[in-house]
Amino acid sequence: MKLCRFTQDNVTRIGKIIGGEVIDLSGIPGVTESMRHLLTHLPGLRLALQAATGPAYALADVRLEAPITDAQKFLAIGMNYQAHADEAAAAGIPQPTSQLWFNKQVSCIAGPFDAIDLPKASEKLDYEAELGFVIGTRCHDVPPEGALSVVAGYFVCNDVTARDWQFRSPTYTLGKSFDTHGPIGPWITTADEVPDPHALMLHLSVNGIERQRSSTGDMIYDIRQQIAYLSTVMTLEPGDLIATGTPSGVGIAANSFLRHGDIVRVEVDGLGAIENRVVAEAA
Q1: Can you give the pLDDT at residue 208?
Q2: 36 bridge partner residues
Q3: CB 147 within 8 A of CB 203
Q4: Domain residues for 45?
Q5: Which DSSP category does 179 fall into?
Q6: Rg of the chain on CA atoms, in Å
Q7: How many domains does the chain have?
Q8: Residue 13 sits in a domain of what CATH number?
Q9: What are the φ/ψ torsions at residue 51 (nearest 5 degrees)?
Q10: What is the dihedral of CA 181, 186, 190, 195, to 10 degrees?
Q11: Rounded distance, CA 225 to CA 120, Å?
Q12: Which of 40, 65, 90 lies at the terminal end of a domain, its last residue?
C-alpha cells in the first residue's frame, strides 16, 4: 500500500494511493489523523485498509501532506555512499571509520510539495537526495539478519542542509534542522511492496538538471546494518524516520548552492517523487 496524509476541503485525513486517486481511510475504526498511530497498529488494520474502496478523490484535487508529522525521532546517516565520501574527502572532510549519525529535529519535517526556506542566516543551502524508511515495530538491539522486519515502509527524502551551519557543531544538528529542511513523502510505500530496498534508483534534479543519480545498492552501510547499529544504542519506535544517506553530486562539492526560486525534485523509482521550491526568508 501507499499510505498518505492528504488535505481536501481544509480537512486532513489519512488515505491510500491507487493509481491517480486517493482513497479516504478515515472511516475505518482505529484510523486517526496520525500516521504514527496507524503504523503502530498496522498489523491489525492491514486487512481493513486493503479492502477500503472509498470515498475516493483525484490526486489533482487534494494536497498531499508530510506522511508523518508527529515522529519522535528523525535520524540521518552521513557519508554513506562511497562516491559521496570521496567528494567530501576532496573538500577536506575525512571519511568516518564507523557509521556517522546525526539528528534532524522533527520540527524540520515538511510536506512533499511544500516550499523550502532559504534562511536569512545561511548562504550555503544544499540538497541531499535520500531513501528514507520508517520504523513500524518498537525494537531494541535488533540483529542485522532480522532488521528489515521492523521497517513499516519507505519514502523519498531531501536532507536539506545549511552547510555553513552544519560545521558550526560537531553533531551537524543545527545545519540539518532549519524549519522546512526535512521534506518527505509523497507517501509511505509499505515494506511488503519493496522487495529489495537496496535495488532502487535515486535521482535529484535542480530546475530540471540532474545533479544526483545512484542505486541504493551503493550504500556503505545497508539498512540492516543501520538498524542494528542504532538499536544497540536506543529503542526505535513506530513512526521514527531514518534517512539512509546521499550519493555524490551535492552542491557543496561544486560550490554551487540553492537560490531563491530553484525547484528541487527528488525521485526514488517505485516510491514516487517530491518537489520543493526554494523560497528566500523574508528580510
Answers
A1: 98
A2: none
A3: no
A4: 2-65
A5: T
A6: 18
A7: 2
A8: 2.30.30.370
A9: -80, -15
A10: -90
A11: 38
A12: 65
Is the predicted pLDDT of residue 91 greater than 90, yes or no?
Answer: no
Residues 166 and 271 in one domain: yes
For residues 139 and 231, is the Cβ–Cβ distance under 8 A? Answer: yes
Task: Please tell me the predicted confidence (pLDDT) of residue 94.
Answer: 79
Q: Collapse the DSSP code of 188 into the 3-class scheme (helix H, G, I; strand E, B; otherwise coil) and give the result.
A: strand
User: pLDDT value at position 167?
Assistant: 87
**Alpha-carbon distances, residue 256 vs 91, 125, 249, 253 (angstroms):** 13, 9, 10, 8
CA–CA gap between residue 279 and residue 10 (Å, rounded): 24
Q: Is the pLDDT of residue 283 over 90?
A: no
pLDDT band at 84 (very low <50, low <70, confident <90, very high): confident
What whole-number distance in Å separates Cα of residue 177 and Cα of residue 278?
A: 16
Grid coordinates in use for 88? 567530501
**Choice among 70-74, 81-85, 101-105 with the minimum mean pLDDT:** 81-85
Copy the grid coordinates of residue 100. Answer: 556517522
Do 56 and 78 share a structural domain?
A: no
Mean pLDDT for the stretch of residues 176-192: 98
Can you give the pLDDT at residue 27? 93
Backbone phi and psi for residue 7, each to the nearest 5 degrees, phi listed first: -115, 130
- Domain match, 195 and 267 both: yes
Same domain, yes or no: 119 and 26 = no
Q: Which three cell numbers stand for residue 160?
A: 536539506
At 282, is the pLDDT very low, low, confident or very high (cuts 50, 70, 90)? Answer: confident
Q: Would you say how long the chain is, in residues?
A: 283
Which residue, 198, 250, 234, 201, is CA-closest to 219? 198
* Whether residue 115 sits in one domain with residue 36: no
**Helix or strand (DSSP H, E) at 241:** strand 241-243
pTM listed for this prediction: 0.96
Residues 193 and 215 in one domain: yes
Phi and psi at residue 226, to the nearest 5°: -65, -45
Which residue among 43, 65, 87 closes a domain? 65
